[in-house]
Design brief:
Blueprint: E1 12-16, E2 19-21, E3 24-28, E4 33-38, E5 47-54, E6 58-63, E7 68-70, E8 76-84, E9 93-100, E10 105-111, E11 121-128, E12 134-142, E13 160-163, E14 171-176, E15 181-183, E16 202-205, E17 211-213, E18 218-221, E19 227-232, E20 243-250, E21 256-257, E22 264-267, E23 270-278, E24 287-294, E25 303-306, E26 316-319
Parallel strand pairs: 3-9, 18-24
Antiparallel strand pairs: 1-4, 2-3, 4-7, 5-6, 5-8, 8-9, 10-11, 11-13, 12-14, 14-15, 16-19, 17-18, 19-22, 20-21, 20-23, 23-24, 25-26
């Protein structure tokens, strides 16, 4: 006969299927894990089995080479011992498996937070998970209403998203380390992004004396000296942020701001460009006007008489249409 009084070494507990986080091991509400006990060196009488107790009450055993399956219904704290063939029992090894069935928490901030902007707008999601913690790639901004699969490449560690247009709309999903997924309650969008250029402003001649508009060019006499135009809103739909002001310049000059109170521009001679500026600073296309100076008197047409020569009859004098090349 053989005697084995050696106390076996306490078991090493290998846990598969659980996530290590916050000093605990976690599974999801529908997840599973296994605990596999083993020893590196067996006593003379070998290892008969591994005994365990569950949360200090339920007891059981696992055969050598086998494992114990854990799910949400039996998760908790497990204490294992090694039992030798001679019924010698080891010291305890303990492992706890916890269940995380709660979605992460999340809030969203926009920069800017309000008001019209030309964009882009930066969206920052701030999330946390007090149980298993956030996944390494925890965030996903997508247009789909459905959460992506766990292996989808669109999951990312970045918690920010740029909105380039008022038409950009996304759903935000956030996940924790065991796979619980939160769908943020609101669409990620910012409706006050204005990246539209204003249309061409209307320009109406309001100087009358000594000024003539032939539909193509504006002419003034030397005496008139200056010409005044009234600036009006572009036709069609205005940009979302509206028109902030108008600017004008001579062909080789720099833009100056038109007085918003009068919206009038007084100029002399030359070509001028007038544009609208939206509430967020987008620049519109120019409307151009040209003012010319007419210093030349018209050319009087030739005078003809009928009848010609000496006559006792009345004579009709006809003056030809005068011409003016300007």
């Amino acid at each position: 006969s053989h005697v084995d009084t050696e106390k076996p070494e306490k078991p090493t507990l290998a846990v598969d299927g659980a996530v290590d986080s916050n000093n605990s091991k976690w599974i999801s509400g529908n997840g599973k894990a296994t605990i596999t006990p083993s020893v590196s060196k067996e006593p003379i009488s070998k290892i008969k089995q591994f005994n365990y107790s569950y949360s200090g009450t339920t007891t059981g055993s696992v055969d050598k080479g086998s494992n114990l399956e854990i799910n949400s219904s039996n998760a908790g704290s497990y204490t294992f011992t090694s039992l030798s063939g001679s019924l010698m029992e080891s010291d305890n090894s303990t492992v706890e498996i916890r269940v995380d069935s709660t979605e992460p928490n999340c809030s969203v901030a926009y920069n800017p937070s309000s008001g019209w902007t030309k964009g882009p707008v930066t969206v920052t999601a701030t999330a946390d998970d007090e149980e298993s913690g956030l996944a390494e790639n925890a965030y996903c901004f997508i247009t789909s209403e459905e959460a992506p699969s766990k292996d989808d490449a669109r999951w990312t560690s970045s918690n920010t998203k740029l909105l380039e247009s008022k038409d950009d709309k996304y759903n935000l999903f956030v996940r924790d380390r065991v796979g619980n997924v939160l769908k943020y309650s609101e669409k990620i969008q910012y409706e006050q992004i204005d990246n539209e250029e204003p249309g061409k402003p209307t320009v109406e001649l309001i100087s009358k004396e000594g000024v003539y508009d032939n539909g193509t060019k504006v002419w003034r006499s030397a005496a008139a000296q200056n010409v005044t135009f009234q600036i009006g809103a572009p036709s069609g739909t205005l940009p979302g942020s509206g028109i902030d002001h108008y600017e004008y310049k001579a062909s080789l000059g720099t833009y100056a701001t038109v007085d918003n109170a009068t919206k009038e521009v007084t100029v002399s001679e030359g070509t001028y460009f007038i544009r609208a500026v939206s509430g967020v600073g987008n620049l519109g296309e120019d409307t151009s006007v040209t003012v010319n100076v007419d210093n030349a008197a018209p050319t009087v047409g030739a005078i003809t008489y009928a009848p010609a020569g000496w006559t006792v009859e009345n004579v009709t004098a006809t003056v030809a249409e005068p011409t003016d090349e300007e």
